[in-house]
Write a structure and sequence with these properties.
mainly alpha, 3 strands, 2 domains, 7 helices
């Protein structure tokens, strides 16, 4: 259908659904993947998922974040969940610098390793420090930047 019309609406056998109803469906994982601020303080209470994997940039407002956290939803923040594209861009840069061409399988294998390690590192901070996954991801990122600055001797 999308190839013919440019849209997925009207797919044979499908029924239209209001976006608010879609967010409220009882499910394990909700993946907001398109719009910033899609889930706000106004609609977060209706979210039916037990896990939210932020594939878009900033799909939850801070108010939504607080509401979902109080509801016990596990949130994988955007800076962790959708970091794959930036990671693969880095891989492309590395290949260009070294005049290399990796096979697609090598890229996928490296990406999987990086993403799993990042998730484990963030989860560990989340559990050890009793902070949200978003704060844990920020702590990890800021810590890595501070370490790089120190190692490079930019600020003693």
């Amino acid at each position: 259908m999308k190839t013919l019309t440019g849209r997925v609406s009207g797919f044979p056998g499908s029924e239209p659904m209001d976006p608010a109803a879609l967010l409220a469906l009882k499910c394990e994982i909700l993946v907001p993947a398109a719009l910033e601020n899609a889930i706000t303080g106004e609609n977060a209470g209706a979210v039916g998922a037990t896990m939210v994997a932020e594939a878009a940039n900033g799909p939850l407002t801070p108010a939504a974040d607080r509401i979902l956290e109080k509801k016990g939803a596990f949130i994988i923040p955007d800076i962790l969940c959708n970091a794959g594209g930036v990671t693969v861009s880095y891989f492309e840069w590395v290949q260009d610098e070294q005049h290399l061409f990796w096979e697609a399988k090598d890229v996928y294998d490296r990406l999987e390793k990086v993403m799993k390690t990042a998730f484990r590192d963030v989860l560990k901070i989340h559990l050890d420090r009793n902070v949200s996954m978003r704060i844990a991801a920020n702590m990890l990122g800021i810590g890595r930047v501070a370490e790089a600055i120190h190692i490079r001797g930019i600020y003693p």
